[in-house]
Each structure stands twice: as structure tokens, then as C-alpha cells.
Amino acid sequence: MNKYSREIINNCRTLYTDHQMTPAAISEKMGGRPSESTIKKWAADENWFLDVKSPEEISPRAIAAKILKKISFLLEKENNEFTVKDAEAIARFQKALERITDIKYQLPVMYQMLTDLLIHIREEHPEVYSDKLITAIRHFKEKMKNRLNHEILR
């Protein structure tokens, strides 16, 4: 019986929960070790399905809301409890918030998601994958690129 390190198990869990990959895709990505059945067993034994993130949870709006909660928590501290570390944390959170809400950062993420979608369609739904679909996505990406350029020039 193969013993896998906690690091490998955690990597599989991250791919399953955060990247919403199937056990088969995870196994393939990792060269077949661990196997699909091993990953399924881990997922069942450790209830990974409870941690699967929905698109709503990882949207820029949801992430921004989480950051704002963290900033609010730090700002609610009493003056004698507020430290330099807290101030530095707020500055980091604000910088992250700017990146999340700025369209020039959102569009590259959207491009990556479209690329991932095309790969998924090609692998999982080959009957839908076509030159017309690729052309439509290219046109959409171009439209978003033009939107970005317009937003930056404002």
C-alpha cells in the first residue's frame, strides 16, 4: 500500500476544492500517483466536498467583502490594542482590495478562466468544442481587451 505525505494529500485537496478538479484529472495531473480511486477515498474520508468553493465564493465581489471584513475588524480595535502590525495589515489589505476591484487585474483573471473553460470543454465535452466556439471566445476576449483599454484611458 502506498503511503503519501500530508503535502501530497493537501495538494490534491486544494486541486479538488479550490480548482474544482475531478479525482481523475488530479491523478492525471500528478502522473497517476496517487490514483483516482485513492483521491476519491481521501475526498470521501475527509469530506472534501464540504470545502468546495462555489464561483460566488471566489468572485472578486466575495473576496472584496472578505477583505473589507478584515479591515473593519482591525479598525474596531481599541487604540491601546492597535499595533503597527495592524496598520501594516490594513495597508496590505487595501492594496489587495485595489487589485481585486481594478478592471486591469480582473481581465487577466477572466482570460485565464476562459482558457480553462476551453480546455475543460475540449477534454470533457469534445462535441461542443469547435472552431466557431474558439472564434467566439477570441472575439469576446478582444471586446474585453478594448474595454480595458477604454477604462485605462479614462
Question: Outline of this structure?
Answer:
By secondary structure, the protein is an all-alpha fold.
Description:
By secondary structure, the chain is mainly α. It contains 7 helices and no strands. Helix 2 (23-29) crosses helix 3 (36-45) and helix 6 packs antiparallel against helix 7. The protein is flat. The chain starts with 5 loop residues before the first helix and ends with a helix.
H/E element order = HHHHHHH
**Annotation field: number of helices:** 7
The overall average pLDDT, rounded, is 81
How many E strands? Answer: 0
Principal-axes geometry comes out as flat
Share in β-strands: under 5%
The computed structural class is: mainly alpha
Rg is: 21 Å
Low-confidence stretches: none
End-to-end separation: 61 Å
Residue share in helix: over 70%
Q: What profile does the largest beta sheet have?
A: none
